[in-house]
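Figure 3 (text version): structure tokens given as input.
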């Protein structure tokens, strides 16, 4: 409320004829009273309605009447009563005829209505589930400082004795405002009936108060609980994914609209943040100009200097804070985009038609996810760059024109003269980058080939030859990278020195063109500040344009992929309900199918009816269309004409087994609920129990990449077990017996597929070349050239002497072949020995409990301790040797990298950085001496000397900067070469078991992404670290020389900051999910 006292200027509040009070205080009382009374209400009445509309549209539930809300309610009602009493007293005095200025009635009335509105907002927030409010936090913050300062000044002037009631009410009001402000810093309980579903792993930001969100305090708690939170994470689809995932086959326009619909609120908030940040950015030069002007005028009151210093500090701090909020919003948006578009690409993969799969290989999809999505994500931070940097340049030139007049035009000339050099460097660097990327791709392909075929290479002793080839390509790659880094150093130096060159030319032209132009501190240091901003705009603009162009190309590639032909969802009329015994389960009527639209049909005039519970065998010569028939039932083929109908759930076993890089139990269960007894029966029937018994961790043993540690027969039986475990109604089996030994195939057929197997009672369509199982089939279909040649029971087809008899004759088997003796093809032996190693074909032994690691000796197996199937200690435990380490990076890791760089080179780099920083300090000090030179007859007599020395120091700084950055990058290349050689040598010399246990994606990630980080990212981060550290040391030295007492404050702050940073730095897990991302792409049919 208003500070009660005498009016601002006597009884006539706005009496301009009276002299203004002297500026002996920080600010005059009239200004403080006016600002303190009107600023908080204007703030709330402007933002309040917008805030009300927002919370009405984004309700989150209903908050219970907590103790926090009751305290806010009591304090608010007390404030309303105080304001009401102030209005009542003013009206009572007016009624009694006591002269009162209008402000004594207007100010309390305004605060009364505003306080009532604030209480309405508090009540509405509780109804809409708002636990902490930023609008009210800002309102209570504004209600205290200015009124408190005004009240303190009036109290010092003795105003308390003139009107004690108003002063006591004001002090009480300010105390209540402080209490409300403290309560606004707290967070309320969660909503009682939340509209959004509860998340198992909620973000800590949702539980944080408004000050914690603004200052990012909640991140500290998040970092401490990161490991525990990661254990409870789950793959729940976030709401941000929904708009994208609904646009699976969209063109570029709808896809762009979907992205905008998902990200517009976050993007607009980030844009608003960067605009506010720029306001503070450009307020710093103006405040610096006013501060230097204050220092040059000894008659100015001292409070103005304190005020300007505080404003400069607040502007810099708020600029940094708002900029970090912009970066945070951008990073959140980047993660959402990456998650949504990656999920969209993988969902598209699962619905691609056969023709689309021919034009989009697995590598193309992986490139879309790893390269194009990454570029699109990285471009978010640059989207505002093209227009905001132009505004930066305009404002900077306006500043320079105000400071230096027409001399500012020389800045444009210097910047334009540097453009050809930068364009030339960029063009040459692009050529070397293309060469570097080409060599990197060649090395990656060769490395991938070597790792995939490591068994063959080791068996022939070819490690040395392949190592030589890889290192030769690696040498060419590092040569191109070395040249590119040198050009990059020249480019960085040109950008860094451009500020100095422009300043030198500006100062020289300004001081030499006119006699009245002299150099002073305001012109010198404000110009340098503005030129620094202008240089950032010059650097940021080409990066922004390049990022936007690359994002456009990547976006077009993604849109083209999303527009590929999909399978027709209406090709198969499927029903989830199971059909009763004897009812038609599968029916095809006059079906004609093709692999793609417009191509020649591969299946003609198919008419097929399969009742529930039948075993249908499909046979035919190679290329007859057997697998195509199953694809047609799955909806993978383009239906030209006819109809297909299936009742019940479908399970499919492909001809080429697909396994995941997970444990055995996860492969079999495949996100189904674990049933130990059923799992045991499935493993026993699929002849997998003897194999599982020999595994080191039983069913929890990790399967290598693409089943590297399994034989072909084991992979096929694992794929069959996954389908059997699902308990589907319809089974489509594409020759699952082809990769099995004869006795194993007979066991699997009898225990799983045959009339007495686990699948009896289900509908089974078996594509097979094993003719010995045909007599046990209920119905046989013979295909020739994509059409049904004949079908019927086995004995009937034998009597017809048709196509089936022709197949038997071609295979060299008699027509009356006995059951279990005829087989169309010669089956390869399982090189690792398949099932049945001493294991009876019957069910599991009675009384045997399901153990994971049974003993090798049957006499001692009962005494050995097994692990239960649902044991969480073994579930998901990696058995490979290549696992991700979590936690803080150890000092030995840094020392290993420094030793790879070399101790002499490290010391030399530090010496070069020290030299260039000394040159920078001397340059700034010499500029200050130039600004302090006295003027004689309107001119500075030593301007030419000062300019030449200033230019010389700048050139020395540029040379030192180039040498130091170049040596850092060259040292990084040296370290990268040595570390790569050690990595390659260690991996190649590893035993075969290492490659069986380690996912292929992890190894490939070491040689691709992580090697690229060592090549490019680490040297760049080291360069930035050294530049900032030595720059900070220069600032500390300058401040300490001018103000020695500043060291008392600087040193504790540095120690506190260093301790905080060291405590928070932890290694972020960087395990590449590439081996997981390739899995659904390569096994999309099974998925």
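Below: residues designed for each position.
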């Amino acid at each position: 409320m208003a500070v009660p006292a005498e009016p601002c200027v006597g009884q006539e509040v706005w009496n301009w004829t009276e002299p203004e009070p002297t500026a002996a205080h920080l600010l005059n009382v009239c200004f403080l009273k006016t600002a303190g009374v009107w600023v908080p209400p204007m703030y709330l009445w402007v933002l309040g309605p917008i805030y009300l509309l927002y919370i009405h549209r984004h309700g989150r539930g209903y908050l219970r009447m907590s103790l926090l809300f009751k305290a806010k309610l009591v304090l608010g009602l007390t404030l309303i009563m105080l304001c009401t009493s102030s209005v009542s007293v003013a009206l009572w005095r007016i009624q009694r005829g006591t002269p009162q200025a209008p402000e004594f009635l207007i100010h309390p009335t305004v605060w009364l209505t505003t306080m009532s509105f604030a209480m309405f907002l508090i009540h509405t927030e509780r109804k809409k589930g708002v636990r902490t409010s930023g609008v009210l936090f800002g309102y209570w913050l504004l209600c205290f400082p200015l009124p408190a300062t005004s009240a303190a000044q009036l109290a010092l002037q003795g105003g308390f004795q003139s009107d004690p009631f108003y002063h006591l009410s004001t002090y009480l009001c300010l105390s209540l405002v402080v209490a409300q402000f403290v309560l606004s810093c707290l967070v309320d309980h969660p909503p009682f009936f939340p509209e959004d579903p509860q998340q198992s792993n909620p973000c800590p930001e949702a539980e944080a108060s408004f000050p914690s969100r603004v200052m990012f305090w909640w991140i500290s708690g998040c970092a401490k609980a990161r490991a525990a939170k990661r254990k409870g994470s789950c793959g729940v689809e976030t709401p941000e994914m929904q708009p994208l995932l609904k646009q699976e086959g969209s063109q570029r326009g709808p896809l762009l609209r979907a992205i905008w619909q998902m990200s517009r609120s976050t993007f607009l908030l980030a844009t608003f943040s960067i605009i506010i940040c720029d306001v503070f950015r450009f307020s710093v030069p103006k405040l610096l100009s006013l501060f230097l002007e204050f220092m040059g005028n000894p008659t100015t009151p001292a409070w103005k200097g304190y005020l300007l210093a505080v404003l400069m500090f607040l502007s810099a701090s708020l600029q940094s804070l708002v900029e970090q909020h912009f970066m945070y919003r951008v990073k959140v948006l980047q993660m959402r985009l990456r998650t949504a578009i990656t999920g969209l690409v993988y969902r598209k993969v699962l619905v691609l038609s056969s023709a689309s799969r021919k034009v989009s290989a697995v590598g193309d999809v992986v490139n879309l996810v790893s390269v194009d999505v990454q570029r699109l994500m990285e471009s978010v931070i640059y989207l505002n760059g093209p227009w905001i940097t132009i505004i930066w340049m305009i404002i900077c030139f306006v500043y320079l024109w105000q400071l230096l007049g027409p001399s500012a035009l020389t800045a444009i000339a210097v910047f334009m003269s540097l453009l050809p050099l930068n364009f030339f460097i960029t063009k040459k660097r692009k050529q070397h980058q293309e060469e570097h990327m080409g060599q990197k791709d060649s090395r990656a392909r060769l490395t991938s080939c070597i790792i995939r075929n490591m068994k063959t290479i080791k068996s022939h002793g070819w490690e040395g030859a392949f190592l030589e080839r890889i290192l030769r390509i690696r040498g060419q790659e590092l040569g191109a990278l070395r040249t590119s880094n040198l050009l990059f150093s020249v480019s960085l130096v040109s950008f860094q020195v451009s500020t100095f060159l422009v300043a030198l030319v500006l100062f020289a032209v300004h001081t030499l063109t006119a006699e009245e132009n002299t150099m002073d501190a305001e012109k010198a240091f404000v110009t340098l500040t503005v030129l620094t901003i202008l240089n950032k705009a010059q650097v940021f603009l080409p990066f922004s344009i390049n990022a936007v162009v690359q994002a456009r190309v990547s976006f077009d590639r993604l849109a083209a992929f999303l527009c590929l032909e999909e399978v027709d969802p209406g090709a198969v009329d499927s029903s989830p309900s199971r059909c009763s015994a004897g009812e038609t389960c599968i029916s095809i009527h006059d079906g004609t199918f093709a692999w793609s639209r417009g191509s020649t049909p591969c299946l003609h005039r198919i008419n097929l009816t399969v009742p529930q519970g039948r075993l249908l065998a499909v046979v035919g010569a190679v290329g007859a269309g057997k697998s195509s028939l199953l694809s047609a039932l799955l909806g993978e083929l383009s239906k030209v004409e006819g109809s297909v109908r299936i009742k019940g759930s479908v399970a499919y076993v492909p001809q080429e087994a697909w396994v995941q890089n997970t444990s055995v139990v996860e492969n079999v269960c495949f996100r189904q609920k674990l049933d130990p007894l059923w799992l045991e029966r499935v493993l026993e029937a699929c002849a997998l129990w003897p194999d599982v018994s020999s595994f080191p961790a039983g069913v929890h043993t990790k399967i290598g990449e693409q089943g590297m540690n399994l034989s072909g027969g084991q992979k096929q039986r694992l794929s069959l077990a996954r389908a059997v475990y699902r308990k589907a109604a319809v089974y489509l089996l594409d020759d699952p017996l082809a990769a099995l030994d004869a006795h194993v195939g007979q066991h699997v057929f009898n225990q799983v597929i045959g009339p007495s197997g686990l699948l009896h009672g289900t509908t089974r369509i078996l594509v097979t070349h094993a003719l010995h199982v045909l007599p046990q089939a209920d119905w046989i279909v013979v295909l020739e050239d994509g059409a049904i040649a004949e079908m019927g029971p086995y004995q009937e087809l034998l009597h017809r002497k048709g196509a089936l008899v022709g197949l038997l004759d071609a295979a060299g088997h008699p027509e009356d072949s006995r059951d279990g003796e005829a087989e169309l093809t010669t089956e390869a032996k399982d090189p690792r020995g398949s099932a049945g190693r001493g294991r009876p074909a019957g069910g599991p032994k009675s009384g045997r409990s399901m153990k994971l690691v049974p003993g090798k000796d049957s006499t001692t197996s009962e005494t050995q301790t097994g692990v239960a199937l649902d044991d969480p200690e073994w579930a998901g435990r990696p058995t490979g040797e290549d696992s991700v380490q979590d936690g803080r990076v150890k000092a030995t890791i840094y020392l290993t990298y420094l030793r790879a760089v070399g101790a002499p080179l490290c010391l030399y780099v530090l010496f070069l950085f020290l030299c260039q920083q000394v040159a920078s300090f001397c340059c700034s000090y010499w500029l200050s001496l130039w600004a302090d030179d006295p003027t004689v007859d309107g001119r500075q007599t030593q301007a030419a000397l000062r300019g030449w020395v200033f230019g010389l120091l700048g050139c020395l700084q540029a040379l030192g900067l180039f040498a130091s950055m170049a040596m850092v990058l060259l040292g990084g290349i040296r370290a990268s070469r040595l570390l790569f050689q050690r990595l390659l040598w260690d991996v190649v010399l590893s035993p075969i078991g290492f490659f069986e246990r380690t996912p292929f994606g992890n190894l490939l990630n070491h040689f691709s992404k992580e090697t690229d980080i060592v090549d490019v990212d680490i040297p760049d981060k080291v360069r930035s670290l050294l530049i900032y550290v030595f720059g900070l040391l220069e600032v500390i030295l300058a401040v300490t020389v001018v103000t020695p007492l500043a060291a008392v404050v600087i040193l504790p702050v540095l120690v506190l900051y260093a301790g905080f940073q060291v405590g928070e730095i932890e290694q972020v897990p960087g395990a590449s999910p590439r081996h997981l991302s390739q899995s659904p792409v390569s096994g999309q049919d099974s998925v």
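The mean pLDDT is 76.
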